[in-house]
């Protein structure tokens, strides 16, 4: 009887956020007749595609036992750099995107090295790099905004493949690839091992610093992808874009079952967490709730989920 009860409790725990998501869909569907339309639901997914990619990157760091507070500023740096490559240097799109990806990797490498060399919790290290990246972003942009991107670049954020928007396709591909990496590769097993019990992983021969550095580098690459989606969708890039995204990304991870202690969580949970945040924002807007009330409700939900 006890074993059966434990299995039921475990299943409820695994599917709790899915149940909450279903309840939110039902409640907002009743409150607003426009909420459960296909157009609105696709809009929710499109608007939060960049957040999902960012949250997956932040989730990798959290699974390893760390915490990245610099993701929003990483988006800012990559966004203005790609815009500068396109509009000031007149690079072709493929070159600007490649350089943006490399910059994201470099920022992730800096975060990983800072956490390893300072030998403090990565939250402290990335708090320092967050400030540094903010300064770099504003130095590059000169506090100016970039507009008038080419249509081919805008299509990355606004285009469609059939009935599905390009940002949703990109986010889905990223989620599937990272899921496969975590579930089917040695790196994935090492990442969970380091986050779950660092000393046991060390005694088993896992190179802890290397695994954590790899997690930050992968996260940096994903932040670069998210930055391109965000700037292409909005049609503008400036140093303020991306700021604050780190808190939504961490919230989505926590809602999705990623533990602050590391070693726990799956990509499907992060997807669910992002959808909950997206449904909340969209539903509350349609219900006529102000932005400040939305912040309060989001904060309450994060506290409850923790």
Write the layout of secondary structure elements.
Layout: H1 2-31, H2 38-47, H3 49-63, H4 71-87, H5 93-118, H6 122-141, H7 151-158, E1 160-161, E2 164-165, H8 166-184, H9 186-196, H10 198-203, H11 208-234, H12 245-255, H13 267-286, H14 291-305
Antiparallel strand pairs: 1-2
Helix-residue proportion? over 70%
Mean pLDDT: 91
Rg (CA only): 20 Å
Shape: globular
Q: What amount of the residues lies in strands? A: under 5%
The assembly state of the depicted protein chains is single chain
Structure description:
The protein is mainly alpha-helical. The protein contains 14 helices and two strands; from the N terminus they run αααααααββααααααα. It has a two-stranded antiparallel ribbon. It is globular and about 65 Å long. The chain starts with a helix and ends with a helix. The model has no long low-confidence stretch (mean pLDDT 91).
Brief characterization of the structure:
It contains 14 helices and two strands. With 306 residues, the protein is an all-alpha fold. The chain starts with a helix and ends with a helix.
Features of the shown structure:
single chain; mainly alpha; two-stranded antiparallel sheet
């Amino acid at each position: 009887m006890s074993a059966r009860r434990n299995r039921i409790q475990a299943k409820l725990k695994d599917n709790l956020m899915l149940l909450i998501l279903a309840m939110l869909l039902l409640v907002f569907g009743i409150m607003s007749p426009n909420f459960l339309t296909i157009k609105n639901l696709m809009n929710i997914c499109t608007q939060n595609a960049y957040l999902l990619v960012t949250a997956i990157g932040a989730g990798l760091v959290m699974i390893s036992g760390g915490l990245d507070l610099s993701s929003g500023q990483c988006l800012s740096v990559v966004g203005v750099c790609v815009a500068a490559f396109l509009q000031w240097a007149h690079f072709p799109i493929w070159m600007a995107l490649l350089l943006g990806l490399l910059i994201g990797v470099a920022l992730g490498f800096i975060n990983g090295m800072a956490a390893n060399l300072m030998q403090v919790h990565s939250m402290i290290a990335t708090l320092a790099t967050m400030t540094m990246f903010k300064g770099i972003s504003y130095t590059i942009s000169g506090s100016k905004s970039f507009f008038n991107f080419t249509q081919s670049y805008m299509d990355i954020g606004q285009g469609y493949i059939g009935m599905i928007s390009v940002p949703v396709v990109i986010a889905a591909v990223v989620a599937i690839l990272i899921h496969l990496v975590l579930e089917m590769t040695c790196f994935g097993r090492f990442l969970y091992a380091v986050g779950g019990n660092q000393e046991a992983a060390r005694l088993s021969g896992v190179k802890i610093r290397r695994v954590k550095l790899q997690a930050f580098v992968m996260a940096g690459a994903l932040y670069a992808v998210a930055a391109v989606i965000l700037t292409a969708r909005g049609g503008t890039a400036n140093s303020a874009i991306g700021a604050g995204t780190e808190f939504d990304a961490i919230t989505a991870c926590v809602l999705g079952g990623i533990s602050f202690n590391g070693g726990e969580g799956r990509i499907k949970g992060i997807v669910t967490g992002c959808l909950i945040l997206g449904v909340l924002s969209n539903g509350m807007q349609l219900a006529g709730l102000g932005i400040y009330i939305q912040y309060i409700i989001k904060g309450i939900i994060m506290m409850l989920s923790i």
